[in-house]
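Issue: copy button drops trailing tokens. Both records pasted manually instead:
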Amino acid sequence: MKDLRIKAIVIALTVLGLAQLVVLGFNVQQRQGDIMAANAAQVELAARLAGEAYVTMRTQNAQLAQRLVTDAEIAKQSFRGSIQDVERRITVLAPLADNEFVGILDSSNLVQSFVTAPSSILNADQIKAALAQQESLASARLVSTETNVISISVADFVESKSTFYLVTGFAAGSALTRRLDKAVGGEVAVTVLSPGDSAQEGAIALALDGSNGSTLNVQLSVKGNKLDITDFTLQKSIAQTIVVLSLAALVCSLLFTRLFTRYIDQPIVAIRRAIRTIKEGRVQEPVRRNVEAPFHNIAHDLESMREAICDRENRIMHHAEYDTLTGLTNRSVISEKLKLAMSRAQRNGTVISALAIDLSRFSEINGSMGHEVGDEVLKEIARRLASNARITDTVARVGGDEFFVILEDNDIKLAQSLAKFTVSSLTSAIHVNGSEIKLNIRAGVAFFPQHCDSAEALRRMANIGLYTAKEHGKSLVIYEPGQDEKHLRELAIIHDLPNAIKNNELYLQYQPKIDMETQQVKQVEALVRWRHPQLGFIPPDEFIALLEKSGMINRLTYWVFREAIRQARTWMDAGYDLAIAVNISANDLSDEKLASRLKLLLHHYLVDAAKITIEVTESAVIKDPENSVKVLNELRTAGVCCSLDDFGTGQTSLALLKQLPISEIKIDKSFVQNLRADSGDAIIVKSIIDLGHNMGLHVVAEGVESNYCWNLLNSYGCNLVQGYLVSAPLTADELTEWHLRLQDRHMNKLDLSFVHDMTA
């Protein structure tokens, strides 16, 4: 900063020098003003002489105008309208002096003819324009042009019928100056000021410039031949002193500007430009370091900061487009890559393969072997994909265990072969830390232009093929037309569920369960139904499976609980003692708040918890046995009964069955629908019934559709049966009517023999 202080001192001294020059100039001006005051009498004499000269010239000019309009020949020619003849006659009668002119004007003040002596001061076009701008020339005596103030006199022609009138004039300033040169020896120059209020008859404003550089502004009043000075203002302006002072100030200013620009302004401008460049994001432009001290340190720091920002932005851009773990392209650039590839394919007439790849059950590797092993697996998959790809192909990681490959420059057969080869290269075992890991690969492929004509559509169709491969357990599925319609239907189902709940498109049906011993209905199973306004009736198996995959099943479960409990309250108020069984999914078992939400609904509708039975499938329990046992225990603690649905299909171990807090098992209908006494199903069914009874559980058989099956189950000791033999699923109102008919049928079968014994 020492250099900066020195520069500031130099600049301050420069400014001080300027101030001293200004003071000197004022002193000189004051002294010359005193001289001007002493010579005021001489200047006043010059002003009076100028006024008298002006009166004389104005009088002569007016007399010239009158002499011309009284000339018989001129009047005669003006009456005839012969302007050229008038002009020639004027030239003969009135030889004009320098700076004088004669003009013939029409009634609109437009000059029809113009006669003037040769002059470099008067400009004919300017005089014409000045006269044309006057609204009236009757009283005007001074008229301004662009360069002069002229004195004019106007006279009408003697012939009253004439359409013209005559104007004469002279350049007042130059004429007065010429006359005063002879009177005062050329020491005073006269400038006639532009006409304002002083431009009236008998008044003139003059500016008299003396040889000493002073200016006297004089306002003269002309009354006949008498002159009165009505205003007298002395200006202390000294041209020579001002010129010297201006030159000195100019030199100092240039010196000051040079020093300030070089040592302060230029470095600051360079630094500000660099800061603005960095602010605007143009970090590739280097900062100029060779600036004057002490700003070079700031420039150096800015350049270091720019390099750091540039490096950081490059890393950010790399991370934005590339996956950190595998080094592959990431999801953000896939769409742009597809568009470019499709443009090239259209020009070259080739085929593009879009391959969507997923590692099935990859989460189990992370869960059982750790994320470090999972990362190594992903790196190996990325390495295999990259090693099998050509330079024109694109390999990207688009999700946790999802990859996307774009294969270019193929025909349709080669495209299919490359897709199959790419998938097969991933199926061989991967060795990590001494462990052998074999993955199940699922992939879908779509082709351009065979399947679509846009990047987004091609990507979507490849994902539809992947979805189909997952659904059917295949390693590779080539997209086929129509698969997207199914996919769109599934998306519509998932998207429309919230509106279906809000618009009452969902409803419950109830299928009764009959106690085989009493043949009474004590419980019904709530079954959800959906009638979509566009898609029509959607089977429960279809939309429930989709909602489980999308993670939206919890919303549906809560709605079913609420409707079922509300209906239980309605039946209780009507005098019906009916419990309701509600199905929950594996996703519901992961909801830690399931029991608390159910208790709130029971409390809201004042329904006993024993009136609600939760049915959970055997396969759902096996997915997460530990958490399932925890949630079911919470439900049992709340007073809710639990039933193990679809028993016999989920491979539940006896050890797990013993831990489950259930009160009922439900035999899967696949064992019941075709039940015969001599079949293997009969052995399984009887074994399940005996197992359940031995464990103190009730046993329910669903899918009963024949009397033979009914009787066989009755002989096995089954507690409850459910199926179309008893009743199809019914709405709440239909079930109420059905239940009344069942009760009437039981009443008609009562043994009334005791009545005859009492009357005998």
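Record 2 (pasted manually too):
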Amino acid sequence: MTQAITLRLITRQAGGGEIVRVRRIDWGEALIGRSPEADIHLPDLAVDMEHALLQVTGQGRVTVKTLTGEPFLVDGKTTSHVELEVVRGHVITFGDFNLLLGQGGEGDVAVTILKREEEPPATSASLFSLRATMFGRRKMAWTLGLVILTLCLLAPLISPALVGHARIHPDRQWSSGPLSKAHAFLEKDCQACHAQAFVSVRDQACLACHNAGGDAAKIDARVGREGSPFLPLLISDHAPHDLLLRAMPPPPTVRGRVAGMFETAMNHPSDRCASCHREHAVLPADPAAPKTADILRAGKPALVVVNDCAACHSRLKMRLPSTGLVDTPSWDRHPDFRPLVTVGFDGPQPRLQRVALSAHPQEVNGLTFSHRIHMDPTGGAARQGQVLGAARGYGAALTCQSCHRPDGAGFKPIEMERDCGACHSLAFAEVGGQLKTLRHHDMRNVAGVLRGALPPANPPVADPAVLRRALAPGGLCVDCHTVTPSAGPLGRQIAPVHIPERMLPWGDFNHAVPAHSGVGAGAAACADCHQARTSDRSQDLLIEGVATCRACHGKTEHETTAFAGAQCSECHSYHQPGESPRTGQDRLFTALGLPKGAKPRGLPTF
């Protein structure tokens, strides 16, 4: 049951008395802002219209997080997201208002709202005055301005002509900081990014090295000649640029809108690569950031988020009616998955379609297979596994790992000879004391052998009737394959087979994460997400919905031992839809022929 919030607004009268107004919020969530519709209305220009959200997250616990990016104070310390225990009596400050947390009656969370009354200092007028008794501030400003102009601009420009070489590098006088480690090789080549004087860095400069639509080999060769120790991470647009501009919401504050107008007027638009990826600025990590959030590491370009994912996707349909995406305002309201399912074939080519899990889709993969029979601990498959023994990779019963072999974030494609051949032999005859085996992946070989039409080096061992019997009900092929009627001489044919490697093409699920592979307290096992033990048909789609992910993602360490973050970047990448964020070293390892996870010697890391 959600805890309620009791609001107590205390107003001081001119005569010294107080007026106390009490209101109760039953749904355990209160919007804080200057807007009259806000639950906690704070009429102060220093407070945004919808500044922050206070939520009850547990017994006597609340979280407060900013909605506009503007911070607030908690016990005198600046933060933008915090989780608090109300019994400790924390004080949250927005502008001239203090919010005092406490325990209310009936287990409610009590929030007392007080406006701070501060008298301006008696000498405040003199602080802002330009008049002074000894040296006027106006003269001081002019003097210092001329000194800075001389030392930082005129002297660097004149010094080469006077002494033959520059003792003060003119560019360094105006640099706001060093480049990141990834771009440090461009330290002496300002024109690589700053192509035009007095014009902010444009996307063309970034895409010269990072364009996924360009020639990767030429890009790699170019950055290699310029001295880069890394291969650049090639990126593509999240969506066509005109759609991105239409989908982008306006700044939430008046100050942001005004700043945007000035930036546009000064030819400094906010929709560039450099609007989010700031160089020459290395920021310290935020100690108040959640444990699961991305921590900014020293030497990396600062990521300045103009709009997060929810800012655009919460009301995307309103700004972009033509989109086929579902509005996603938050993780709690994330739409259920729509996996990419094989719904049929056009000749040998599979026909794929995204189908919502609520429609209970069936996969037409061309196979006849029962997970339940193979995983029955007392069935024939278990007995066969016991006979084969641990030396062959089996035991008393088959498990998921008996057939599905990990390969990085996913699994290797199923191969009949490797994964099924130990039990399902492809030997069809014995010639000269040796078993003859079909090549399962080569249908011409299979048909040729069973028709008895192989060349003399492989003498025929069967007549055409053998192939007809193999395709008939009860035949060898029918055990695993879907066989359909055909107009050919045999009257039947094997349906094409297609097993997709990824059913969620716009999300990157990593099976190698320990919590996803059953490692650690509270971690998920295969059966928690794939109900294979009860599936009798290969058409069953053995994946769970987003509700299963919420069992861990979006939870705190107080709610589950397998708590995990709910940031969009956990599964989605802005520049590489369908993948989680990566680094340029991924391509470097591939180019050097190194195994996954290996570290090349002598190269810096980032």
